[in-house]
Amino acid sequence: MIWTIPNILTTLRLLAAPGVPVMFLYFDRPWADWLALTLFIGAALTDYFDGYLARLWKQESRYGQMLDPIADKAMVVIAIMVLTGYNGMNPWLILPATVILFREVFVSGLREYLGAKAGTLKVTKLAKWKTTAQMVAIGVLFLGTGLDYLYGVHLLGMTPEQYADAVKAGTHDPVRACFRQDCASWAGYAGLVLIWIAAVLTAVTGWDYFAKSLPFLRERA
Length: 221
Hints:
By secondary structure, this protein is mostly helical. It has one domain (5-214): Four Helix Bundle (Hemerythrin (Met), subunit A) (Up-down Bundle). Helix content is 76%, strand content 0%. It has eight helices and no strands. It is globular, with a radius of gyration of 19 Å. The two termini are 35 Å apart. The relative contact order is 0.13. Residues 175-183 have low confidence and may be disordered.
């Protein structure tokens, strides 16, 4: 495997995925939110540039083709896990998050089962839009959690512990609270709308892949 710039960018995106929750382990909020957002945006940008540069410089490789979707899925899955935890397990976020996670696992399982026939499930343009929608939604949601934390802790005078307790008790929510304050968390509300759009695209592309795999699934073992 040759360490071309596109391959390096793809590898860095994969390594950045677990870096998102690490920000919350070693930094206080809201710095953790801003650092996680910056890391996520930087990694998401590499998703465009690694493929673009690989095609421009004719440096496509099997390593890049293999690792690119894995890095994308790792980024999305880990970021959603963090967001659901820091949004007080909001059901309006958990439902689209569940759709996204289920689809990613299901399609990965389909590709593994089909083996050499997995080429049937080539990435479509809609699937690329799906990934873009997921990453935009997650980035906006991270912005919302940071803004809401600033509102709860710095403007309302809560301690971090009191803020966490308020979220768990349901008296303060990164989405619903926007209707009871000066809308510091409108980004959270916008992110919620975007994650639902991403979930719909995710479900549609998942069904498309399943339909394409049906002829192979009907074959006798």
